[in-house]
Every structure is written in structure tokens, then in C-alpha cells.
Task: structure prediction
Amino acid sequence: EIVLTQSPGTLSLSPGERATLSCRASQSVSSSYLVWYQQKSGQSPRLLIYGASRRATGTPDRFSGSGSGTDFTLTISRLEPEDFAVYYCQQYGNSPLTFGQGTRLEIK
Amino acid sequence: QVQLVESGGGVVQPGRSLRLSCAASGFSFSSYAMYWVRQAPGKGLEWVAVISYDGKNEYYADSVKGRFTISRDNSNNTLYLQMNSLRTEDTAPYSCVRGRGTSPLPLRYFDLWGRATLVTVSA
Result:
């Protein structure tokens, strides 16, 4: 099973700042099979990025994904108030599909 | 409106059964593989079961295999999860989720989530 480790566990930043979230895999993951979700408080997760770097429909262009192999990154270029949420990565290149434990992005 | 609405959650004793339902609307339900995903407190997200678009193939997480059964009614745009022999560790909100991608099941990602229904297993 591929274990996805997200860091940091909690990230405290202010609106307007840049956020960098990490997702590290215990084994190599094809870039095509790495996605990111955003989950706001009291809501279900929402797909943000698929194929490691492709924005899903409706995802603002301040969100970008990058990486390959075992190291992937979600970057939010300039934080808006609505961006403070929990972010999860997921891989589906190897069975079983697995999720990271999440990074909580909170307002500083 | 494209949405998934779950129902059927509740409080149940260990060893008992529960049946969850998910009503889909606003998209061609019969064209998509559908999942149940749960999010137990302190344990993160976990896929539970998946059924192919035509209902012919089912896959289960090891943690629920032999106890849970996923099914669908494409004529009524509804997904089900029959949960038997429930354990305290099954306690979680359960979401109905649409799968995307072209990999063989159960390897997909998720582009539409319901609001979840809470299952609590407690004596």
C-alpha cells in the first residue's frame, strides 16, 4: 500500500500570502494518478487538481499542482479568505487507492 | 442540479445492520462508477466500496469485505450500501461519490461528493 504523508499538518498563514503544501508518497506514483481535494468545514471534499497539475473545472488559477515520483506540491499563489480549509492528496495509480491525512490551512 | 444526496444513517448497536441510500440527480448516473467513502475521526478518508457503471462489478476495502454490499438501481438513479455485522470502528460519515478516470476499478479519483450520512455504531 502506498502511504501518502502530507506536510505540514497545519499551516498558519495570512490572506495574500503564498501557501505550499507537500504530499510525499512511500513509493513512486505516476503523475497522472495524483489528485488534490479541498474540504471546507462542514462540507464534503471538492476536487481541485487532477493528473498532479491539471485544474478541475471551477478551480481558480491561483491553485497549481506540481511534482513527480514521490514528491508532489499544491501551491496557492495568493491566499483568499475562502481558501482556508483542509487539503487532501490522493493516489489511484496503485491498489488500494489511498489518501493523505490532510493539511489544515488556517488563518494566522 | 448535479448532486448526490445520502440517507439512511443513524445509531445502531454492534452486530446489527443498516442500509444507506444515495439519490443522484443532474447527470447520467448509469454512465459512472460509484463509490462509498467514509471519513472516520482520526483515521482520514477511506474508500469503502465501488460498483461499476452497469452494476456488474463490485470491489470492497479489506476492512468491510464480507460484511458490506454495494448495489445500484440505474432506473431510479440510486446507489445503496447494505452494512451488516457492524462494528464500532465502522462509525463515520459515509459519502456517496462519483468516480472518474479510465483505470481499472477500483482505481479512480472523485469529482462529485454527497454531503454524507452519519453512521454511529455504539452499544
